[in-house]
Amino acid sequence: MQTAAATPYSQHSHFVSLIKPPSTSSRQFIATTSKNNSSSLWSVSEIAEAVRGRILKWGPPGTISTDTRTLQPNQWFFAISGQNLDAHDFITPQLSQDQGCVGVIGNRVCENWDKGFVETEADTLVSLTNMATYARNRRFCGQVVGVTGSVGKTSTKSMIALALQSSEKPVYESHGNWNNRTGVALSLIGIPNTAGIAVLEMGMSGKGEILELARMAEPTIRVLLNVGASHFDNFSSLEQIAMAKGEILEEAKPGDVCVLNADDPLVMSLLPLPFGVQKVLFGQTAGCDVRLVECECTNGGLGVRVVLEYHKEMVEFVIPSPGLHLALNACAAAAVATLLGVSLSQVGICLSAFTPVKMRSELEVARNGVKIVNDVYNANPVSTRAAIDLLKSIDCKGQKIAILGDMLELGAIELESHKMILKHCHSAHDIDLIGLVGKRFCTAAKDMNLLEEFNIVCSLEPETFAEEIVKRINCNDVILVKGSRGMRMEKVVNAIKAMEI
Question: What angle do CA 473, 477, 483 make, to 5 degrees?
Answer without folding.
Answer: 80
